[in-house]
Each structure stands twice: as C-alpha cells, then as structure tokens.
Amino acid sequence: MATSFKKKSSRGRSVFIPGTRPSLHNNQLLVSTGIPSMDAVIGGGVAVGTVVMIEEDNYGSYARQILKYFLAEGVVSGHGLFLASADIDPQTILKDLPHPLDHGDDNTDSTNQEDTMKIAWRYQQKSKVQSNPSHNRFGHYYDLSRVMDEKKLDTIPVRMFNAAEECTSDSPKNRSNSLYEKLLSEVNSTITDGGYSTTAAKQQQERSILRIAIHSLGSQLWGEECGATCVDFSPALPWFLYSLRATLRSSLVVCMVTIPTHVFQDSGFTHRIERLCDTVLALESFAGSDKETNPLYRDYHGLFNIVRLPRLNTLTTHMPDSLDLAFKLKRKKFSIETLHLPPDLSESVSRNQEEAIRPKPGALACQTGSGNSKLDF
C-alpha cells in the first residue's frame, strides 16, 4: 500500500540571511555595497567571504563616502559592523552615516530633469547602468544631508579599532607590524565571538553577516613608509591582506578596504596588493585636475575604473557592458553611469575632414590645376 509519508529533513535547505541574495552567475551569496549602481557594475553585489579594495582618490573624500554607504547598508540590513581607522576616530565615522530614504523617495531619476542628455541625443535610447533597487529591497538610497539616528546603531553589534590609540614599537621594515597583528587578532576574535565562522562546531540558528570596513589602510599612520622602490616597502601590508582574505574564506564576513595607492611611488607594490584582493576599484577624482574645468566632464565628479573582479565558483568573471564608467555624487544618490562623451560636430572639424580626403590637384585625369574649381568631377 502506497503511503504519502516523507521524511522531513533540513539537509539541502539554504538558510535565508537578511540583506543577502544568491548570485545569478555562480550562486555565490551576495550583499549590497549600499550603492545599487555599483552592485550592478561588479556583478550584483559583493560576494560573502571576499575583500573589496577601493583605491582612494587624491583627497580621499569620495572613497570615504563609499565606505559610509557600505556601513549604512549594514545598519539597515541588520548586519554586524567592524570599523578600523587610523586618521579619523571610528566613532566620528559612525556618527556621520547617511540617513536611509523611504521606499517612495528612492526613485529620483524620473523626477530629475537635469540628467537628460542634450548633446549626445543618440545615446538616450541606450540603457544606463541599472541604479534602481529591485522590489526585494536589496540595496537602498541614502540622504547625505541627514544623519542616521544613533538608536539604529544600538540594535546591531558594533566593534571599533582605533589605530591611533594603539602604540607600536616595531619597525615598519618588520613583517610583524604590531598594528596589523592587533587588527587581525581583533577581526578573528570578532568572528569567533559573533558566530560568523562557517567551520564552528555549533552553528547558530539565526545567522548574520559581519561587515568589516578599514579606512586608509597602508598610510603613514599605519606604520607604512612610501619608498621609491618596491624593496623599500614593508611586507607587512601584503602579509596582512593575505591573512585577512584567508580568514574571510571560511566565514560569513565581507570586507571593504580603502587604500591611498597614490602615495606609493612604486607601481609594482600597488600591483602586489591588488593581487591580494578579490575586487579592486579605483576612483579618479576631477577635483584639482584639468578635467574639473573641461566641459566634457561637467556632469560627473570623477572616473570609476574597474581594476579586478573576483572569480568565484567559475572559470570566468563577470564583465559589465562598458568599462568607460564615471561617478557623480548628489544629495540623495551616489550614481555610477556609463561615460558618454558628446560627438564633435563642429563646422571646423567637418571642413578639416573634407579637406583631408580631397585629392591633390592633378591627381585625376578629369581635373583642372586648381583644387577648388567647379569643373572638377
């Protein structure tokens, strides 16, 4: 006699974690950076267990804003936070997080008439980078003119590491930099105490994500010396990034690190630390450069360069539709869009091109000696 009895088992069931979603490319668990347009560019979000490196702009202001978006998204999603900094007090950064917008105020593209392209009209039909969050609330918009309520920070676990208060007596030439060792020890203890490790014997029923944000890692305040050659640099920073990424591989943790690579005089050292991170994004600000007054870039604040994208559970990596990207910061949105330069349709350019393709006098059989004669055919 057939029976409808089935054994109830929890094997194979995926545990839902708030603020996450699986990737459509490799089924990797993703979290939002707090900037929906950045999530779309890098493949849907940041994979859990990876390290994101942001190469700071010259003044570091835009990289710091991206770090605040990353932390604010963690507060809204209910994730744990770990913030480390050397030049700015971590408590000051947490008090300056942007305020999340309501669902009705998210869509600002339809009401903003300044975003329409007036010169390059042919590009209006082309799709921009998807910057609107979907209906499942993966990613939010934030108002930079308002500060997040401090009561929301009391609902999540927050841990801070102020490198300025930590004394260091080791030489920067030593591989075992005391600041990096203490920071790595704090990260390991936070992962163990918070139950974020995936290899623990006892797993918690309700799992969550830990977001690690490290501001201006590798600067002089962290004990680094910016020498002229790669030999002059300390191996402490590559060792720390290598150990950090190995720790994150077996935990429900995602890390974002901002590094001022413009202070490194040797490009070989920059390439070394880029290879030790999963995702590498570079910001090139127009502030203080000739591009700031260039009318071609008047609608943007800088260029957004993709240096490296992760390869997880696949042989290939996600490739965006275009690598010519630019960013602009508004009051309610940090958007990343495809850079569309207006075509040069001036009268002088057309005349120069016409003269360039015009043959020389006497080059054809049915041609007079003068190049501008009406008898030429």
From TrEMBL:
Residues 367-377 have a biased composition (Polar residues). The keyword tRNA processing applies. The keyword Calcium does not apply. InterPro entries: Elongator_complex_protein_4 (IPR008728), P-loop_NTPase (IPR027417). It holds the Pfam family PAXNEB. Residues 345-377 are annotated as: Disordered. Coiled coil: none annotated. Keywords: Cytoplasm, Nucleus, tRNA processing. It is found in: Cytoplasm; Nucleus. Pathway: tRNA modification; 5-methoxycarbonylmethyl-2-thiouridine-tRNA biosynthesis. GO terms for cellular component: cytoplasm; elongator holoenzyme complex; transcription elongation factor complex. One of its GO terms (biological process) is tRNA wobble uridine modification. Its main location: cytoplasm. Belongs to the ELP4 family. This is Elongator complex protein 4. It comes from Actinia tenebrosa.
